[in-house]
Every structure is written in C-alpha cells, then in structure tokens.
Specification:
37% helix; 6-stranded parallel β-sheet; Rossmann fold; globular; alpha/beta
C-alpha cells in the first residue's frame, strides 16, 4: 500500500522518518513530503497559506495512483483538501490527533481560545506572519515524553510556521460525501490541547475506525514503533 504522511506545524517530513522505516519494513511504500513554507533553511514563508501548501502537495502527488493519506495535527485539514481534489485516488484518510474542519472553518476556529491568542501574538511579532514557537513550550507541551537528547535534537530543527495555515478557511464541497473511508488515531499522552478537542474532531467523521496509541503529540518522534503499529491497524 502507498502511504502519504503529512506532518504538523514547525517540522517537516523528517518528523516521520522512524515511523516510515517501520512501515516500509511492513511492506508499504511511504512518501513523507515537507509542506511548502516548512522547508529547512532560509525560506520565504510570507504569504504561505493552507492553499499554498495543498497546491504544492497535489503537484507532488501527480504521478501517484491509489494511496492513503495520513495527517497529523494541522496536517488534518491538508489531507481533507487533498481528498477534496483527488477523491478518486484516495483510499483512506487517517487523522493522527489532527483537526477535522467543516466547510468555511479555519484551524483557529477549533483550537482553544488561549492557544489561538498566543500564536496570534507570536505571528504579530514576526516580520513575515509566522509563528516561531519557543523551544521550552514545545518540549513541555508537544513532546513531554522525550528524553533530553531527543528533545534537543528536535527543537534544533524546528522552523517558523506560516500563520496562514491557521487562518485560512477551508472550502469543502465533497469531502464528507466522498465515501472515502477514514480512521482516527488518538495519542493517549497528548498535552498540546485537551483530549476533548480531538474527540470532537473524530466525531465529525462518518464511522471512523478508532485506534489508540501511547505517546505525546509528537509520538512519531518519541514512540515511532507503536505509532507505526497504530497506523497499520488504522489502514488494515
């Protein structure tokens, strides 16, 4: 099976490396792209929006036939919009503690108000409308189950995230009626937002296959073997 793994904010496709190794060992083909605006190095991130990211990803999938889309966190709306465009080629969508938006919503509409105000303030302080997340916050709230060496290695690779990913409303005319099967993977030690936020997201899907996995919001970095096993259950 061909799996496309879509990462969340502040990181790139590299976040899936260890999970991808497990999935390939199980016989699957894996593609873990880095979304537009989240590349390493000096990148022009100003003006990058959810549409910018989806347009670029759809181009990268031009030669893919049938595949499963996996979206983590902010990658949820990305795989919704890719499915909207490529419905006939998507076998299943898998959301890993990811946001599931309704037509006309943006990510900020489903996040806790205090988190929205915090990331908005960070974006307003930047010169290019990006969010540069403090490493201490990342370590404490996103991967609190990591050892010090892993936390240091990851935070050194984090990049500013375009605020347009959070603020652009999605346009979904057929995602929820497409008939594409879905799964939702809960990360049981996730402290990034309250668990009720993820439960509300999963409830928007039609009869999703539910799978649970130990680990923080960044379980792909702190518990990749178990997350890979959870994904295998989600796509079985």
């Amino acid at each position: 099976m061909k799996l496309v793994l879509v990462h969340g904010g502040w990181q790139g496709g590299w976040a899936w490396d260890a999970v991808a190794d497990h999935l390939r060992a199980a016989g699957h083909e894996v593609f873990a792209p880095t979304l537009r605006g989240l590349e390493d190095g000096p990148v022009d991130r100003a003006g990058v929006t959810l549409t910018t990211m989806v347009d670029d990803l759809v181009r990268q999938l031009a030669d893919f036939d049938r595949f499963v889309l996996v979206g983590h966190s902010g990658g949820g709306p990305v795989i919704q919009l890719v499915t909207e465009r490529l419905t006939g080629r998507v076998e299943r969508t898998v959301f890993v503690d990811a946001w599931v938006l309704l037509d006309g919503e943006c990510i900020n509409d489903v996040l806790p108000a205090e988190l929205v105000s915090g990331v908005r303030a960070l974006a307003e302080q930047s010169a290019d409308n990006t969010i540069d997340l403090p490493p201490a916050l990342w370590s404490a709230s996103f991967m609190q189950d990591a050892d010090a060496a892993t936390a240091d290695a990851v935070t050194a690779r984090l990049v500013p995230t375009p605020f347009g990913w959070f603020t652009e409303p999605v346009r979904l005319s057929r995602f929820f009626t497409s008939g594409v099967a879905s799964s939702y993977v809960y990360l049981l030690e996730d402290q990034a937002v309250p668990q009720t936020v993820y439960q509300a997201a999963a409830a928007r899907l039609a009869n999703p296959r539910i799978v649970s996995c130990a680990g923080s919001h960044e379980a792909m970095l702190t518990n990749p073997g178990e997350l890979a096993d959870a994904l295998l259950k989600a796509i079985a």
